[in-house]
Write a structure and sequence with these properties.
Structural class: mainly alpha
Number of strands: 0
Strand content: under 5%
Distance between the termini: 24 Å
Radius of gyration: 11 Å
Order of helices and strands: HHHHH
Oligomer: single chain
Helix content: over 70%
Shape: globular
Largest sheet: none
Number of helices: 5
Length: 65
C-alpha cells in the first residue's frame, strides 16, 4: 500500500495523516509524490493506523494526540 493509498483508505487529509504519523506535512507530501520513501518504522505505523481504523479506534486516537 502506498502512502497515498493508506491515507485515502483512512479517509484523512494530508495534514491529518501527517499529524497522525508525527511527521511534517511536507514530509508526508514527499512520500505521496514518491520523492522520498518512508522508513520501516513509518510503514509499520501506517499499518497500525489502518488497524485502528478497522477497529473503529482511529478517530478517538486522533482526538487525543
Amino acid at each position: 500500500m502506498t502512502p497515498a493509498e493508506a491515507r485515502q483508505a483512512l479517509g484523512l487529509s494530508r495534514e491529518e495523516m501527517a499529524r497522525a504519523m508525527g511527521v511534517h506535512r511536507e514530509t508526508w507530501a514527499k512520500w505521496e509524490r514518491g520523492e522520498r520513501k518512508p522508513d520501516n518504522a513509518a510503514l509499520q505505523l501506517m499499518r497500525l493506523l489502518y488497524w485502528l481504523h478497522e477497529k473503529r479506534g482511529l478517530a478517538q486516537w486522533l482526538r487525543e494526540i
